[in-house]
Specification:
8-stranded parallel β-barrel; binds manganese (II) ion; globular; alpha/beta
């Protein structure tokens, strides 16, 4: 298991590589060319420069989160082959830079969705939270405006203003896309990129949908064990794998997180391990990583990863906002560093017992 920390790049993140270097047990960062737009081919020089910057700080790039997928690939538009071609070029560039893990998602229009970016908790911290009854009252355009206004001035991952400016057109484009078509379009994409993944040994790790059900009537396909197994089997290549994200799959209490780990054994290339607190169906908030603070048994999750032979990349996920920190919501230094230390502690105890 390789403990890592997500970092958005020196232009976009409130956290420095020097700070990350001081978190015990963290030697790798998960990063991206944050300014790039979905559909663009990444330039070798830019990736090499990012790599050099990370390595100068005594760290390494453990993987990319994310190389985003152009909406035309997801909708299956005529122009998708052009964008897949660019995606393949980007993977080639990453492979040549010695980067072997790429996280991505296949969610229509919106990446993750929350109804509140700063919900106060009893301990005085604030967290990201979701309430389906609130989401049901919001029209999708207002959704972006309300999230953007509370982002502390940071661009939120997956909510790039350039894309959100075309939100009406995006919803139109997805109108004929059923759950089945979206799945077929994912398989088409995966089959096209497997040869370059084989050539450079790049593990693709699809991120589950967050939350794990359709939002705003848009289809969602990576939501539970059945769908994940279907996706892994549809393109049965080791390089077609999963980002096992407890915070996304766990939004639905019916998902058996340890069961999903066992079902995806050998194909989990990346793990996002954190805790949620479930208040009621469709209503949850993020919690500290500690089991006692939320609804998940974090020991059981780490133990199942360990016992199924997981040897991939792991990172703490969204943290609470604590100790007066101002950062991108969910991506402060303090609570995620506590999360990394806790996960490392669980892992050491599991290994030694
Ligand atoms: Mn995640």
């Amino acid at each position: 298991m390789e403990m890592t920390f997500r970092w958005f790049g020196s232009k976009y993140d409130s956290i420095t590589l020097e700070q990350i270097r001081q978190i015990p047990g963290v030697r790798g960062v998960i990063t991206t060319l944050y300014g790039s737009k979905p559909g663009e081919a990444w330039a070798q020089e830019e990736v090499n420069a990012l790599k050099a910057e990370v390595e100068q700080a005594g760290l390494k790039i453990s993987g990319i989160e994310s190389v985003n997928i152009h909406d035309d690939i997801k909708t299956g538009a005529a122009s998708r082959d052009k964008y897949i071609e660019n995606y393949i070029k980007t993977l080639e560039v990453l492979g040549k830079a010695g980067i072997h893990m790429v996280c991505y998602n296949f969610m229509p229009v919106f990446d993750w969705t929350r109804s509140n970016l700063a919900k106060p908790r009893k301990d005085g911290s604030t967290v990201l939270a979701y309430d389906q009854s609130v989401i049901d009252q919001i029209d999708p355009e207002a959704m972006f405006a309300s999230l953007d206004a509370k982002s502390n001035g940071f661009v939120l991952p997956g909510w790039e203003p350039e894309r959100m400016a075309h939100i009406k057109e995006l919803f139109e484009a997805y109108k004929p896309v059923t759950k089945e078509k979206l799945f077929d379009n994912l398989v088409y994409f995966l089959k096209a990129i497997m040869p370059v993944c084989d050539k450079y040994d790049i593990n693709m790790a699809i991120h589950p949908d967050d939350p794990a059900w359709p939002v705003f009537n848009l289809p969602r396909i990576i939501t539970n064990e059945e769908q994940i197994v279907k996706m892994l089997k549809a393109v049965d290549n080791k390089h077609n794998g999963l980002t096992f994200c407890t915070g996304s799959l766990g939004t639905n209490p019916k998902n058996d997180l340890c069961g999903i780990i066992r079902a995806a054994k050998g194909r989990i290339h990346f793990a996002h391990v954190r805790n949620l607190y479930h208040e009621a169906p469709g209503k949850f908030e993020e919690a500290a990583h500690l089991s006692a603070d939320g609804s998940f048994d974090m020991y059981a999750i780490m133990k199942t990863l360990h016992d199924t032979g997981f040897d991939g990349i792991i990172r703490p996920d969204h943290g609470r906002t604590i100790w007066g920190e101002v950062s991108m919501p969910g991506y402060g230094l303090y609570d995620r560093a506590l999360g990394a230390a806790y996960l490392n502690g669980l892992w050491e105890a599991i290994e030694k017992s």
